[in-house]
Amino acid sequence: MLDAGQFFGIDVVVGFAVFFDSGLDLTHKPLLHEIAVDRVKLLKLLGRLVATAFSQRRKTLRNALKTLLDESELRSLGVDPGKRPETLPIADYVTLANYVSRRGGDSG
Question: Domains along the chain?
Answer without folding.
Answer: 4-103 (1.10.8.100)
